[in-house]
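Task: encode each sequence below as structure tokens.

Item 1
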Amino acid sequence: MAVSSASASSERRVLVISPGWIGDAIMSMPAVQQFHAAQPDTEITVLAKPNLLPLWEMNPAVQKRLVYAGNGITALAILRGKFSAAYLFPNSTRSALLPWLAAVPERIGLAGHWRRWLLTSVATPPNDSAKQHQAWEYATILSATSSVLSRPQLVLPAVARDQATQRVAKLKRPLIGLLPGAARGPAKRWPADRFAETAYALHTQTGGSILAMGGASDAESCSVVAAAVGSSALNLAGTTEIPEWAALLGLCDVVICNDSGGMHLATAVGAPVVAIFGITDPARTGPLGTHDRILQHSQTQARAVPRTSAEAAEALATISVGEVVAAALEALHHGTRHA
């Protein structure tokens, strides 16, 4: 069981079980940050999947991290951690079973999937129109009392910042990030050819450079975007770990993206975001910045959508290249970044 630590232990130790998706993990960070601010002497350990460990290593509210390594090994690691409480952000039965097996005295989470008996306390989502966002569910689990949640915070490693700076050293400003992917699938993806048209239009009108970014599965769509611009574009899909990806997003003057983990990562590092939504509800899962621009035409606004959806595809198709270009130019003109 790999463990990383950022500080010495304190008297009270609590475990936070991270969501499994990068976007959800970032949306949970404001609650963890508020918990840490309210209880600075409590040591917070986050349990996360291996791919999310680098993300949580950049959050300053967390002192230790555990890596999920199978149910038995992970439950034993939790037992050895001697936690007084476990806060469960995922709704899965497994996330409740692990601290139950480790005999953690307090186990708090939403009712979830047939797991009430594994919890000592069931949190109830807030019934407040001002607290619809998913981030407030995590705050409720942690018993956060503030009326306002801060933006997710990430402290980028110096090596990641240096790598990102070197990659873009020869590119002309403005740096325009385009993220044509979305891990959830086609139901959240604006067509790649429209991202390409947007990239070409913005390059032509600003003289700037394009950074096409995403995971390895986004390589094909990012290649389409980069090809539309030529030598003034970089296709970085699948070539960066999370810290360098975050650093590259932080260097961008604007980021254009789908409703995705990359959208939340861009917001966390302060980049102005133009987010393209189909039928998912930005009031529940939108970016947590204060200067983001959301483009959506659909009257349907759902919490979750299937990976493929004709309705979502139609809704995304109604958003024009011109609208996206105009929103990006407005963001560039104002030059406002998140504090």
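Item 2
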Amino acid sequence: KIWCCLLGTHQLNSCLGIQLSASDILLRQKRNWVIETFTFDEGYSGAYPLYLGRVNIKLTEIHGPGVDKEPLNLLKIDNKTAEIWVMQPVDREKHDQFKLIFQAYKKEKGDINVEMGINVDIIDTNDNEPKFNNDMYEVTIEEAPSQGTELINVTATDRDSTEKNRKFSFSIESVSPTPQNFEFVINEEPDSGNGTISFKGCLDHEKAQKYTLIVKATDHGQPKPLSSSTTVIINIEDGNRHRPVFTKQKVRLQGVLISRLQVTDEDTRGTKAWKAKYKIQGDTNNNFRIDTDPETNEGLLYVQKVACKSSFTLLIQRAFENIYFAQETGD
């Protein structure tokens, strides 16, 4: 007979949920049947040790992870009472199940005939927030990209085991300085953990050379969603968006040569008779002066001082001669 629930063959088959005779069981040496499964929530925050339950079978020595294999001493099984206890917290992301093995034996001879199993399943709780791959992201772009241009990608991961706790969404929590006439947006690639930041509107370097975004990843776990954030810096380079414009210039005219007056004289070049002398008439404020070029005999007309008038009429005479030249100057 086998020590399992009750000692009879029919009771043994019922306990194991199989249709085998006692002789079949004796022939199946080292065969493993799971006779009980317990569950433990990794989010349990109470006192330890924690009672899980009792196995309705006489136990021999039990082996397996959590008992005599790593992680050691996490589970405690009382061979006399068949009670199972959890001795410390368990992280499902490291251990999702513990499979324990014990031996059933024939009472009369004590021969070991079959291995049986007890499973302890760890229930996932939302104990991991999504985490970004980088604490900070940074990109530099020109100020004139097309609306909707992808600026930068961010990536996050959540270590929780089940999909309901592992799934998360991105959001832009803040932008500094506050955008004017445009906005940053983030689009998600489903089930990839990637978010792409783009913009709507027009980026203008003259309004801001840098924007600092706080991007948040929030999971969908219950009862309380968990989240983390990262910083994204977007630098805006000045683009060629403006034509150069002339502004009012201040020009210094005093002493500027404005005209060379040419004369012809048949006298011998370089003699006193050949040399010309010039005189300005009509310039009552002495705004101009005229000198003689000793090499060419030309009259060199200069601005002597700046006046508010926009035009002048000057009469230029060569000395001892009639008027040879009259010239009107403007702006």
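Check on item 2: The chain has three domains: 9-123, 131-237, 257-329. The domain at 131-237 is CATH 2.60.40.60 (Immunoglobulin-like).
End of task.
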